[in-house]
Amino acid sequence: MLRICDLSVSYDVVEVLRGVSMEVKAKECVALVGANGSGKSTILKAVSGLIKKNKGSISFEGREISHLEAYKRVDLGIVQVPEGRRVFPEMSVLDNLLVGAYNKKARKKTKENLDFVFQLFPRLFERKHQVGNTLSGGEQQMLAIGRALLEEPKLLMLDEPSLGLAPVIVDEVYQTLGTIYERGVSILLVEENIYRAFSVATRGYVLENGNIVLSGSRTDLLSTPFVKESYMGIKK
User: Fold this and answer.
1) CA torsion 78→82→87→93, rounded to 10°?
2) Is the pTM of this model over 0.85?
3) Spatial CB neighbours of 153, under 8 Å, sequence gap ≥ 6
4) Cys-Cys crosslink for 100: which of 3, 133, 147, 204, Cβ 3.0 to 4.6 Å?
5) Which domains does the chain have, with CATH numbers?
């Protein structure tokens, strides 16, 4: 579904990604893990069209998309849930959700997708007339995911969905991601917490200093000495 080949990206003169290649297949959940500053969010922004590449290619369902504006990539089914939620603070929960159903394809299924979101997150239904900035951090994360689902994603990309949330809320968010994945939506999940990431993802990539240093199945990655020592705190 998504294929990235030899991708390089810079911020001003600083090269953040260097020759990154990875892929996400249809109906697959892939984790992208690494420390702060390794370039994880930059990959998502490059796929979404929020930043330009220096070189390399990004293709979606066999089509090169590097030249497309961000909104046209959403029309193709590429949807990102940004780090920090980014809800509209003065708009109601319902209006925040409806913002997601802006394109023609999504509008046709607004009621069906809205019902699905309210089933996933009953608290959003209870608070549908509250404004976004009155919600807790966990509720705002639910709202950001729900808004993305109203956009009819084929590929859902999430940037640090557990960041700043209480463990019980993180459990709830990840249980929901499992339900979304089971519905057939492909997921690219950026996380620092490797345990959380691989509670849903079946395959992953490890990013260090702008380079992919490891890739493989969940079982293979969790058993490597590098991952054990660097991300799980298990010393030799």
Assistant:
1) 50
2) yes
3) 77, 78, 79, 185
4) 147
5) 1-61+196-236 (3.40.50.300), 87-153 (no CATH)
